Amino acid sequence: MELTLVFSVIVIALVFEYINGFHDTANSIATVVATKVLSPGQAVMLAAGMNLIGALWGTAVAKTIASGLIDTGVINVTSMVLICALAGGVIWNLITWWWGLPSSSSHALVGGLCGAAFAAAGDNWHAIIWNIPGGEHWWHGKGLLPKVVIPMVLSPLAGFILGMLIMGALFALFSFLADRKGVLQKIGRPRFANALFGKLQILSASAMGWAHGSNDAQKTMGIIALALASAGVAGQLDGLPQWLHFLRLDGDPKNLEIPLWIKLSCAIVMAAGTAAGGWRIIKTLGHKMVKLHPVHGFAAETASATMILSASSLGIPVSTTHNISAAIMGVGTAKRLNAIKWTIVERMIWAWILTLPIAAGLAYLLVKAAHLVGLPI
């Protein structure tokens, strides 16, 4: 029974990663498709390849998910707890995908994990690591506050400001060039700018795919590693046949090396999800919120990728959705304030605010329901 639950965690985690693919990776390619720089097929292939590279780049975010949010000294993180955590995130992701809202798979997963742990610990708040200072700056700390809540506010705000600054700088540059004569004036013309930034946007879209893989793919890696490490401590993997020994992960999750098979599995499944159904989100980000040209797409992707890669290096599980959406808003604001369709933005912000508590609530209820029907928690 225990081994079946462990395998169930792996399968459900990969299902979550697949849904993350068509829910979140769509965000990383929405702008390059909307600006018609790449076809949908080309964008999907680019995102898939760069996700793979990003997923293999570091494990700081995976270790945060595996050991930085839940206090395993207070609660034994069983396979059933992780199943309920993942299910809570999956349910909310599917609801927001159906509505076409670019909400955060990252926060859905974190919310589900915290809600499930809280329920399994008998409503003990100490099951959640809230804040453990770890250095000179807040981002060196450990826990929900420094790794999730503060970045949830600051990273999209920084993405918005950076997107606006990059776009403003580009507008100033092209205005300067348009006032010159000869070759410089030609460079400042819209047709030349679209051609130039159409090529540059391939680079910025690649950076977005890399950034997404480096952060989002690692979150599911952390869940799988946590499940296998916990099962190993509990002795649930002692009787594995020789051909399944690759599942054994010995040691503390915070010092754990993520095996290559977990990295590859998460990256490949995310790429498959990307190809399957991100068009509702792409339509909202790339068409409904603001009209985009290649120069706008380049600025938004550059700003967002910068923020996400910075967070990944610090082990902070930020939202690709929040960052690219905020960067697009910043770019649109630099263009002109009424270029943004603020009614769409309002719906998105509500989805951002509600994701963490609703996913936590869903996972909490699933754990309580599992307990009521006699399933092992």
- Mean residue pLDDT: 81
Helix share bin: over 70%
Tally of helical runs: 13
Distance between the termini: 12 Å
Instruction: Give the topology string: H per helix, E per strand.
Output: HHHHHHHHHHHHH
The biggest beta sheet is recorded as:
none
Gross geometry:
elongated
In terms of DSSP E residues, the strand content is under 5%
Kindly provide the radius of gyration, computed on alpha-carbon positions and rounded to a whole number of angstroms. Answer: 21 Å
* Structural category: mainly alpha
Name the poorly predicted regions: none
What's the β-strand tally? Answer: 0
Structure described in brief:
The protein is an all-alpha fold.
Structure description:
The chain has 13 helices and no strands. α1 packs across α2 and α4 (79-99) packs antiparallel against α13 (342-372). With 377 residues, the chain is an all-alpha fold.
